Amino acid sequence: MNISSGEIKNNFVAIRKRVNDSAIKCGRNPAEITIVAVSKTQPLETIEEGIKAGIIVFGENYAHELKEKNDLLDSVSKNINWHFIGHLQTNKVKFIIPYVNLIHSVDSQHLAGEISRQAKKIDRTIEILLQVNTSGEDSKSGCAPDDIFDLAKDVFQLPNLNVTGLMTIGSFTENIIQIRKEFRMLRSIRDELVANYGFDQLKHLSMGMTGDFELAIEEGATLIRIGTAIFGQRNYTN
Predict the structure, then answer these.
(1) Where are the domains positioned within the chain?
(2) CA–centroid distance for 12 within its chain
(3) Contact 15, 205 (CB under 8 A)
(4) Could you tell me if 158 and 110 are in contact, meaning their C-beta atoms sit under 8 angstroms apart?
(5) Distance between CA atoms of residues 109 and 40, nearest Å
(6) pTM above 0.85, yes or no
(7) pLDDT at residue 237, as a whole number
(8) Rg of the chain (C-alpha set)
(9) Which residues pair with 205 in a beta bridge?
(10) In terms of CB atoms within 10 Å, which end of the chain has fewer, N or C?
């Protein structure tokens, strides 16, 4: 493990304070905001130390890695709230359905349909978010903003799914105006889905990472995805 247990705890406490301060500053209730600790590529020891530090919600990007970690952490996995936050291939859905708590990255009817089918097999209802590509970058997954309304109407008809919000990934830029525009777009789409289509259960906006989560909180984020600021730099060599 490249970072000590004490550092993880101190980092998590510091992030929670920044979340609380940001929420209060813009008139929001800090309790509305959940920190998703992004643990992709992190070793099991790091996750175990994160649990000791009080972290409950962990975000993973790869289905096989999530399955392996859940299996190896069997003795404590029931205390973990697993979120899948990466691009999910349909042929990998079956690996995470038994224990994933929330899938952030549903961007097509095809993927939603497979999640629905696999969830029905084991009599689970899976909570999902619809991912929107608010930046328009080809490198990012997500439904086009103009297509999200049709996607939402289709997905809401599927059994064993509970659609509770939207997700986006902001542009990798230091241009605050651009990032804010993208976060504000996601909130606007959510508000329109609620107002015009009656999708009242869309309570979540998953947006904001280590470099921009305070801005995301200002724009209404309820789920922020924080990795580096808690666990340090990732190791991609394995």
Answers:
(1) 5-229
(2) 17
(3) no
(4) no
(5) 26
(6) yes
(7) 54
(8) 17
(9) 166
(10) C
